[in-house]
Design a protein that fits this description.
Strand order of the largest sheet: 1-2-3-10-5-8
Low-confidence stretches: 1-13, 24-31
Number of strands: 10
CATH superfamily of the largest domain: Jelly Rolls
Number of domains: 2
Order of helices and strands: HHHHHEEEEEEEEEE
Mean pLDDT: 83
Number of helices: 5
Radius of gyration: 28 Å
Largest sheet: 6 strands, antiparallel
Length: 224
């Protein structure tokens, strides 16, 4: 008969071993997943670098001289096997006059079709307002939203940094915009431009019909 104390120790050892195996398996999975991401990024970087270099009629040697990076390093990066430092990536992006994102990421398609049910939207339940994000890809320093107001819907705007401008264009209905202590009643086709850092709010004046408008916010350079 096995001593209960010995059996207890064996069970504890088995539990510890099981945890170590689980941790090892999890770490291995994370490592493999990360490794795949790095490989894909290296291949995409290689494709982008070759395309950008050739589009500017630069040889590897010419790019090496411009970026102050050895030609052998550029050749290695273009092979898809390289793992360049951040400093070299910045030098390459600067030499090719592109952003780091454009150098590393998959190129965006020139033409994008987005069905209406796939346009990102947000429903403000407390305000009864739907906001659709019109830009499929972010444009630095700008937001364009389409706003649909339910009957008598009211929403407070979010003040932005100083030097931000908002342009509010009414597509349908009648909307009242409050800016600080002033109010402006807008109809279809009207535009209101105001500093985005001021307190503001929107109100659909009709209690029987919805209203729609576009909000274009141009952020202050301090924002980005």
């Amino acid at each position: 008969m096995v001593d209960p104390n010995v059996l207890h120790i064996i069970l504890l050892l088995l539990k510890t071993l099981s945890r170590r195996i689980d941790n090892y398996s999890t770490s291995s999975l994370i490592y493999c997943h990360t490794d795949k991401i790095l490989d894909a990024t290296s291949r995409q970087l290689a494709q982008n670098l070759i395309q950008l270099r050739k589009s500017q009629n630069l040889s590897q040697m010419a790019l090496a001289e411009r970026s102050q990076i050895p030609r052998s390093t550029i050749s290695y990066i273009e092979s898809g096997e390289g793992n360049p430092s951040l400093a070299n990536l910045i030098k390459l992006a600067s030499s090719l006059q592109v952003s780091l994102e454009e150098l590393i990421k998959k190129p965006r398609p020139q033409i994008q079709y987005i069905p209406k049910d796939q346009v990102p939207s947000q429903w403000k339940s407390q305000s009864s307002i739907e906001i659709k994000k019109i830009l499929p890809d972010p444009i630095e320093g700008m937001e364009i939203d389409k706003m649909r107001f339910d009957e008598k819907a009211i929403m407070k705007g979010t003040p932005h940094l100083p030097n931000t401008k908002e342009y509010f264009y009414v597509v349908s209905g009648k909307i009242r915009v409050y800016v600080n202590k002033e109010r402006f009643d807008l109809s279809k086709g009207d535009v209101l431009a105001f500093p985005g850092n001021l307190k503001h709010a929107y109100e659909n004046l009709n209690d029987k019909k919805q209203a729609e408008a576009f909000s274009v916010v141009v952020f202050s350079p301090d924002y980005y």
